[in-house]
Amino acid sequence: MIVAGFSYNGKLKIRKSGKNVKINSTYYQEKGLRSFQRVRLHKDKFTSHTSKSTKALFEKMKTDTCIAYILFHHIPEKSPDVSPMDYCSVGLLKRALSKRKPTKIDELWKVVEEEWKSIPLEILRKALLSWKSQYRLIVQKKGYQIEHLKQ
What terms describe the molecular function in GO for this protein (predicted)? Predict the structure, then answer.
């Protein structure tokens, strides 16, 4: 698993999880959320993002660090089409990786880092600016995938 994120102002350095790591609320909180400062987190309804302990951490972060987050009940669906990270940057990263052919795990990681750095910030900004229309379309389609639809 990789941990990555972006804002309108830039991308976070991409990081990888350890081998055979189980991604649960604790791991998500310790490894995924600790690198954010003064941002508004957009998350999906993935279980580790919505657990009671993660919600409690979000409240503490909001108080301690001014990091805001989109409330769980404001997220209409559990869908990969909801999060700009999923519908934009991960898709771009997967497409770029499919063109490369690393043969070893260390080579794969090097390629992931290179491709992440090469994703233009302007494309990511456009995705951030379009997330409300993404939500509306998902709700209109009652949670069904929308990635094949023109927007």
Answer: nucleic acid binding
